[in-house]
Design a protein that fits this description.
Strand 28 (about 695-700), helix 23 and strand 29 (about 720-725) form a beta-alpha-beta unit. The protein is an alpha+beta fold and about 775 residues long. The strands form seven sheets. It has a six-stranded antiparallel sheet with strand order 12-11-16-15-14-13. A five-stranded antiparallel sheet has the order 2-1-5-4-3. Helix 18 (about 505-520) packs antiparallel against helix 20 (about 590-600). The chain has 25 helices and 30 strands. It is about 40% helix and about 25% strand.
Amino acid sequence: MAQILEPEMEAGGRIARLLASPYFGWSAAFVLLLGVFIPDERLSIITVAFGAALAALLLFRRVKDGLGNSSRPAGDINTLIAHDDRPVFVVRSNGEVLYKNAKAAEKFGRQSRDGFEQVLEKDFSNAAAIIFRLQAKASRQNASREDVVTRSGRYRISVHRLQDDAFLWAIEENDLPPQTGRVSERISMPMATVGSSGAILFMNAALRNLVGSRVKTLEHLFVDVPEASRTTTSLSGQDGAIQVHVTIIEGLGGRTEYYLSPVDDEVKPAAALEELEDFPVALVRLSPDGVTQQANRLARDLLSLDNRSGDNLAELVDGLGRPLTDWLTEAAEGKSLHKPEVLRTTRVGDEIYLQVSLGRVIDNGQVSLIAMINDATELKTLEAQFVQSQKMQAIGQLAGGVAHDFNNLLTAISGHCDLLMLRYDPDDPDYADLDQINQNANRAASLVGQLLAFSRKQNLQLEVLDMRDTLADLTHLLNRLVGAQINLTLSHDPKLMSVHADRRQIEQVIMNLVVNARDAIDGTGDILIETRNAKLQGDLERDRVVVPRGDYVLVKVTDSGAGIAKDKVNKVFEPFFTTKKTGEGTGLGLSTAYGIVKQSGGFIFVDSEIGKGTVFSIYFPTFDRPVVVPTVAPEENVEVDFGPINAVVLLVEDEAPVRAFASRALKMRGFDVIEADSAEDALETLKDPAIEVDLVVSDVVMPGLDGPSWVKIARETRPDLKVVFVSGYAEDHLTKDKDQLPNSVFLPKPFSLNQLTNVVRGQLGDAA
């Protein structure tokens, strides 16, 4: 075969070299000139025809050589189109611009690196669709043409196929004013003229044929009347709703012209999906009842399809909220197109969400649907993370607010109980009842403290901890909690690093987790507490939370209990959620642990499976900074001097029961008390320079001005004012103001009579 082809290739090479020779052109011109001067008419015609054939062959060769150059055509094509008064382009089928004349460069810019679609989209909103339609038609018929109306004007675009891989595009601009009447009848694009009142004054023949009759108003023409140009809507066609692009152009005399063009999905693609097998967008062709007809590779991967067709979309996805067939039927009728829906795959195991948009294709009168599918799993995950974060934040705010109000109530209850107990001797029968009230008020205060722990608004006494020592001190208590039938085991990393946390609160976390594990075990079982160092090389993403990379101390509490159902695992940290029977638990144990861990800068996760037990994993950031020895707080209950004190206290409290108790308590200890129910009232009192105030006891959170704000104002005239702040929230609420408020201390609610008076005496300098 090679021996046969070599002579032909050699002959072809000689012909190519002959055509490329400059003498060939002169020869063709000489033959043409000779034919003109030959006297014999018959011989002259033959000679001229031969010369013309040579010239045509030369022109064909030059055109072919010009198109083979990726930068621009050769001289002959350049000569033909360079001075055309229309923008003219020579473009490959893949959109690469081979050449553009001066008019094209002037109109569309001289940037040479842009593809043809990028060049046109500056003036045409649907450039990709226009190129696809005209190029496809020119590929079949060698030429195509279309009138396009845009906001900037009217254009006639024509395409001629030069060879298999190149097309000649000419764009002719029409600067005439909007056409009406009989002239518009000749436009193939459906159009209508509308008066200022909204009545349709004129419909051309193309639109009348599309609708089936002449209508009088836009409401009868469109299913949804478009309010702006370059929008997609449904036209009330004689065979049903038709999706169209609408271009609106303001005319003369208050008139408006509506030009309609078919949407992209009305094009009849021939074997489109086969050509888009490796397209980076998942595409599926469906019948109106949802049966898959074609799917490209990415779509098959997302939907777990094999190469065969015939699967029903309703069996592959769910989560629409209404029958999937209704959605598909509406789309086949031209309704609800291009509106994405997020669906979930029915694939076993992975939870994958898909964003699906439907388009309609009409091919030989048969309606099909094209589903464009995007993987929305990451988007749904981010949405779920945000919703979970917002939910926990809202619950925390609610818990903190409830705790604050409860602390006010408990302050009043326990305070007035203290006042009553002062009247009775411990041997009095009524004293025992008052003592019960006081103890239960303290238990309620502890419960409220758990709510504050969840909302991360409790007071923390931070110190450097070795978790091995902390757990060793707890071992005896934990063994008593779990009982003899449950085996409690501790396992530690010998090189465990330190953490910075509140020892009392961390002990509370461990105790809550162990008690929860004990209750999950029916009869005998095992609980394992282990600690080890964990170094995260990258961010750890799990349970909708991201744990930053770094060094952590990992504490795991594992039990062999009954496990937690999958639908309840994500709720175990919510306050008052419990799987126990009524009266067996408050549902605050795990929420308290969650709040303490989060306030300590850590992360807590749960893994559980029915019948296989539960594992709680806590990540505490390691701490390697110098140890700061905490200041030892003075004992709260000490003997005090009940003698008279010449000191005036301004008591600012918006809760009347709390104010009444505090006022009586201070007066009983010998203080002169001035009461104010708001910050504004307190400032008004201090305006009188004759009133001497030695100390202020003020609530932090009040309507209007809060405690720190009004104290700053008061110190402008009384800079040496001493302050005791009280609040049902944690001291963290004062952190931002503490440096600006010297000579002030904090007393958390609920407080007892002795606690209040001791703090006041200490702040005045009369240390008890």
